[in-house]
Amino acid sequence: MAVLIALVLIFGVFLNIYFYNHIVSLRHMLVSSQKNLQKLEVANADLKNDLYKILDADSLTSLASNFGLIKENKPEYLENSWAVASHY
Q: Rounded to an integer, what distance in angstroms lies between the CA atom of residue 66 and that of residue 45?
């Protein structure tokens, strides 16, 4: 009976060490993932800033002038004279 208790205790100690090691490994992976996420968030913010700079009104105006486009001061739009009916 004493041998069985000793074996159960030894098994419990090894199982405890095994679980502890896995918990520590998971914590290290979690910290690493959080740092990686922060880097990605910074990169995402930088990309958004670059996009906003590209889509800025001044840069779009200069881009349009580079392509030889001019701003129409009094645009004339087409009018739709057709009657559109939907039968759903």
A: 28
Please give the C-alpha separations between residue 18 and each of 5, 7, 63, in angstroms, as whole numbers.
Answer: 20, 16, 62
Both structure tokens of 6: 């000793």
Query: Could you tell me the pTM of the whole model?
Result: 0.57
Q: CA–CA distance from 67 to each of 4, 6, 47, 63, 70 (Å)? A: 87, 85, 25, 7, 9
Cα–Cα dist 66/80, whole Å: 33
Q: Which residues, in sequence order, are CB contacts of 86 under 8 Å at separation 6+? A: none
Per residue in 3-23, pLDDT (tens digit) is: 999 999 999 999 999 999 999
The type of residue at 15 is L
User: Which residue matches tokens 């090691």?
Assistant: 21
